[in-house]
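Target chain:
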Amino acid sequence: MSDQAAIPRLDLDGFPTGAGLLHLRSDLPEALDGTFSPWCDRHHDDLLKVPGFRRARRFVLCGAFTNGEAEAGPPAARYLTVYDLKHVGVLAAAGEDVHTPLPPELIGAITSSRLDCREVRRWPNVSVSRLFPAGDKVLHLTAHGSGTAMGRWLHEEAVAELLRSPGAVGLRWFDAGDGLHVLLCEVSGPMWPLPPHVPQDLGPAVWSGYRQVYLADAPT
């Protein structure tokens, strides 16, 4: 198969149903972790009652790297939360209906960023009707560049390098719009895969390692 044939085309209107991800990163003073975590658990439960929300997961940061070197710039967000969605349209349908009141001590204390992502590709090729296999931690990448450049790097180098690493469970590629891409490599066990080098045309790119602290699926 040629490289051109192997690279999926970024047609945002043609993504398969079931390929949505709500991606949230949050920071707050460590002294408030004991209040933040129980609130998050309640908020996850509330969102999982919304039609189209399939799974909620929360992670805490273990370390960050830029092309294999310890990140010297601003630290990555300490918390990562991802929600698997039936499709990205679920977010518009949900609107602002879900509100889990914040405890007073958390008001104004949390900084966060949000990405609404569409899945481009997954390895192994599990049906989008099924939830992707989850590890107990993730190797996380954000990168900027064209979809063609991202697809070429994944197919020619990154996928094989990551998935042959001990403990690697699977890999998903998401498009977050405006040339931003997110990779989630699911990992189980004590070992972390060595993050592959990211080409300059996909920079700036930062790898982060996150340990899972919460997982729940929507009620059936």
Observations:
- The helical segments are 3-6, 33-47, 89-94, 147-163.
- The longest helix spans residues 147-163.
- Residues 1-18 have pLDDT under 50 and may be disordered.
